[in-house]
Each structure stands twice: as structure tokens, then as C-alpha cells.
Design brief:
This protein is mainly alpha-helical and 127 residues long. It has helices spanning 3-23, 26-36, 42-48, 53-65, 85-96, 106-117; strands at 40-41, 69-74, 77-82. A hairpin with a 2-residue loop joins β2 and β3 (77-82). α2 packs across α5 (85-96). The relative contact order is 0.10.
Length: 127
């Protein structure tokens, strides 16, 4: 992998990490969950998500900066909608789903490791 590809790869994962930082708040996840159902005005969001209006505004600004939501203003109404609906729908579906922890024994992990690396003769790491 060349230097340019390394830089692109690093930027790709840095951008994804920034997105996860924005998503790492329960209020923002709730807002996105509501917006998956359709556009919502601020007063509607505030009625559904019990936080102060300034607090909600801060979260909406973070979601706007991340280019997840945008808004239209009509008089005193400001209505938000999703900019990347497929991404947000997928994320909300993933987060809502249960993901049980699955412990495995050492031999099964080593078998899988050998299969994934294509070698039966390799020694296990740290052995």
C-alpha cells in the first residue's frame, strides 16, 4: 500500500470516527430515530425528547455539522429532515437490535484464525 493510499485510508477511518463521536449521545440518537419516521419541527422534537430547548439546539447543531440533518425555516417554524436517510435508518436499525456477547474457547478461535489466514501450519501468536 502506497503512502497516498495510507493517507486516504487514514482519512476514511478518521471521518468515520468523527461520525461515531457525533452519534455517541442518547439525545442525538433519539432525534435521529424520530427523524427516520419523517421530518419534525423543533417544537415536535422537544415534545418527544424531554430536554431544554437550548440543549436540543446544541444537539441539532452537532447533527447539522456532521451533515446528518438539515432544516427549513418557515416563519417561526424550523423543521428538520435527514440528509442521509439510508445511513441513519441502517444505524438506528443496528443500534436497536440486540447483540449478545458470544464467548468462545481458545481452540475454536485458533481454528478460525488459521482458516482466515489460509495456513494450517502457522503457529499461534505469542506461542
Amino acid at each position: 500500500m502506497g503512502k497516498r493510499e495510507n493517507i486516504r485510508e487514514k482519512k476514511f477511518w478518521t471521518d468515520r470516527a468523527r461520525l461515531f463521536k457525533v452519534l455517541a449521545h442518547p439525545v442525538r440518537l433519539r432525534v435521529l430515530e424520530e427523524l427516520v419516521r419523517g421530518p419534525r419541527c423543533v417544537k415536535d422534537l422537544n415534545a418527544l425528547i424531554p430536554v431544554s430547548q437550548p440543549h436540543l439546539s446544541q444537539h441539532m447543531a452537532a447533527l447539522r455539522r456532521a451533515k446528518l440533518v438539515a432544516s427549513h425555516t418557515c416563519g417561526a417554524l424550523r423543521c428538520y429532515y435527514l440528509l442521509r436517510p439510508m445511513l441513519v435508518r441502517s444505524l438506528i436499525r443496528l443500534v436497536r437490535k440486540e447483540h449478545p456477547v458470544r464467548r468462545r474457547d481458545c481452540p475454536s478461535v485458533l481454528r478460525e484464525w488459521r482458516r482466515s489466514t489460509g495456513s494450517r501450519k502457522k503457529k499461534a501468536p505469542n506461542s
